[in-house]
Design brief:
The protein has about 230 residues and is an alpha/beta fold. The chain has six helices and nine strands; from the N terminus they run αβαβαββββαβαββα. It is globular.
Length: about 230
């Protein structure tokens, strides 16, 4: 017989809650979430990333696809990759580069080295229309990974957006990496996010911008360094 020091109806509930929290954290093990620093509300997005996932910022002044490739080379355990950036039908904007049908061939060798099992793309409308579907199909073939992506505007409902990824590989059930994004954003510090590595002076300057309110994204990245640049606290 197994004995516990808990009383029925009191600690049992707390223990169940603790187990649920551990399961949530476990579900984001080996998960990386990359937020493009060009997003106006990137601070709030980073603040809403669920525990267990590793957050990174993408340098908007550098080739985002190459940045991600370098990051994944240094984090080979990564199985699930979430990319939060601007998008348009059949196109994802990553740093100062674009991932589209026109550029796919140029980046094919780099993308094939992204050894992830699942890729989630939050850019507005990236999987919309024939162009979007064709890009998703070719990415699936190239990466040999399950993919989820948005076919509508991504962001706050008040701006006509939502937080659903409508296009998915059949059977894919990976949860979104974002929790509620209505909390007041916290100041970013290297202590809070030890894995958050700015990659240039331009990114450090971008971090000093005043945080904006939550808004849906428009439709109009990150080599890891050995030296960390201190992040602003205000």
């Amino acid at each position: 017989m197994m004995y516990t020091n808990s009383r029925p109806g009191i600690s049992t509930s707390a223990q169940k809650c603790e187990r649920n929290q551990k399961m949530k954290h476990k579900s984001f093990t080996n998960t990386i979430v990359i937020v493009d620093a060009s997003l106006e509300n990137y601070r709030q997005l980073i603040d809403s990333i669920r525990p267990g996932a590793k957050p990174f910022l993408l340098d908007p002044q550098s080739d985002g696809i190459e940045q991600i490739g370098e990051l994944l080379r240094q984090h080979r355990e990564t199985e699930v990759l979430h990319l939060l950036s601007h998008g348009s039908p059949g196109c994802l904007y990553l740093g100062n580069s674009q991932l589209s049908l026109d550029t796919l061939r140029n980046y094919a060798s780099t993308l094939q080295k992204w050894k992830v099992k699942q890729l989630l793309l939050y850019g507005c409308n990236v999987a919309a229309g024939d162009t979007g579907e064709e890009l998703m199909a070719k990415l699936q073939t190239l990466l040999r990974a399950d993919i989820a992506a948005s076919t509508t505007r991504t962001g706050a409902a008040a701006r006509g957006g939502n937080w659903k990824l409508e296009w998915r590989t059949p059977g894919m059930e990976t949860p979104l990496a974002l929790g509620p994004v209505t909390r007041r954003p916290l100041p970013l510090t290297s202590t809070m996010f030890p894995s958050l590595l700015p990659t240039s002076n331009s990114l450090a300057a971008a971090l000093m911008k005043t945080p904006q309110s939550i808004a849906s994204w428009g439709s109009s990245p990150l080599p890891t360094l050995t030296v960390k640049i201190p992040l602003p606290t205000s």
